[in-house]
Amino acid sequence: MRLMLLLLSVGMFAGLFSEQSVAQQKTEGPKVPVVLATSELQDVPVWLRAVAQVKSLKSVEIRPQIDGVLQQILVQEGQFVQQGQLLAVLDDRAPKAALAQAKAQLSLVQAKLAVAKRDLQRFVDLSQSQAISAQQKDQQQALVQQLIAEVASSEAAITAAEVQLSFTQILSPVAGQVGIRNVDVGNYVRPTDSAGLFSVIQQSPISVEMAVSQANIPELQVLSKIMHQQTIPAQVYAQDGSQQLASGKLSVIDNKVGAGSGTIRVKAQFANDDQALWPGQTVVMAVRSKLLSQVVTIPVKALQQGPQGSFVWQVVENKASPKPINVVFSNEQLVVVTGIAPGTVIVLDGHSRLRPGSMVQQITQKNTAAKAAEKNNSEPTGTNKGSPL
């Protein structure tokens, strides 16, 4: 009898414990799987970003400076040349003949001047003894002065002829890359021709120019004051913004707002040693306008919006609760916020099933991706329902 009572008591206690466990599980509910992250304290740069165009610092259209026949082109299309390198040669026979004529004229005038000076000395001696009139001496003095002027004129003519002769050799005014040739050897070329021989464009260093809205004038005013004391970083990305092409520094902020566009031109300079930037190329440029020092940041994906404003799901002892925050700044990767301390555990992914007080279970993004891939692989693909074939 006692044994039966003992067994009955044990059974009733076990049943009561089982009912309490079930009730507790119903109260707590199942744990919500979430991906967690942590707020961080870091420096965050703020960038002014806009579509920009690559521009060469020096772009020269090579043209002849005198009329003549193009005899030689000494560089290839696309070749990189140095400043002062010989690019092309014109027919130099006429300038050489003009130079020889000018030199001969100088010799002739110098000979006349020598004779006139000797005659003048004799006239001076004779005038002292009154053997000739003072008028004759003065006329000879004037002749000497005239011949001296003719010598100077002949020397200037020689210099001009030498300059004309130098124009028959076309030198590169800048270091850069040769463009596509417009004229072939053998053509008679003139300075007034509509097209030059070819262009030479400096590739390194190179500049990039963008137009910034006048709404950013306060930031530009600050940059204008400090850009000569410190380096303001600039970065260039591909037109779609995906790939960074170069890093450089801010060089110029224009002194006025464009009347038609309402924008201000901003220019930065880049070394471009790897030729990643090409003159005329359309890119995206970013200039750092300021640096937010030691601020609290969260991933963009963790930020949530509700009727009361911005918030995050904060997790304490595996329990999630909404935490209001203020957004100071945001970009594609992170959000600068106030209202939470650095090191706060927050929900990065899995918000849709959360309720205040929900218990959470941490999972990794890798596991989430693996489950999604497994689900996709399990679904049939390649079906053609309703296909007429």
Describe the structure.
This protein is α+β, with helices and mostly antiparallel strands and 389 residues long. The protein folds into 4 domains: 32-44 and 294-375, conserved putative lor/sdh protein from methanococcus maripaludis s2 fold (Beta Barrel); 47-57 and 205-291, Efflux pump adaptor protein, beta barrel domain (Elongation Factor Tu (Ef-tu), domain 3, Beta Barrel), CATH 2.40.30.170; 62-90 and 170-201, Beta Barrel (OB fold (Dihydrolipoamide Acetyltransferase, E2P)); 92-167, Helix hairpin bin (Helix Hairpins, Orthogonal Bundle). The chain has 5 helices and 22 strands. It has helices spanning 2-28, 93-128, 134-166, 217-226, 365-378, and strands spanning 32-38, 40-56, 59-62, 68-73, 80-81, 86-90, 169-171, 176-178, 188-189, 198-201, 206-213, 233-237, 244-253, 263-270, 282-299, 304-306, 309-316, 319-324, 326-330, 334-338, 345-349, 360-363. Strands 2-11-14-13-12-15 form a 6-stranded antiparallel β-barrel. A hairpin with a 2-residue loop joins strand 17 and strand 18. Helix 2 runs antiparallel to helix 3. The longest helix has 36 residues, at 93-128. 17% of the residues are buried. The model is unreliable at 5-27 and 367-389 (pLDDT under 50).
Number of domains: 4
Mean pLDDT: 84
Described by strand count, sense and barrel closure, the largest sheet is: 6 strands, antiparallel, barrel
Strand order of the largest sheet: 2-11-14-13-12-15
CATH top level class name of the largest domain = Mainly Beta
Q: Any idea what the radius of gyration is?
A: 43 Å
Specify the CATH homologous superfamily of the largest domain.
Efflux pump adaptor protein, beta barrel domain
Count helical runs.
5
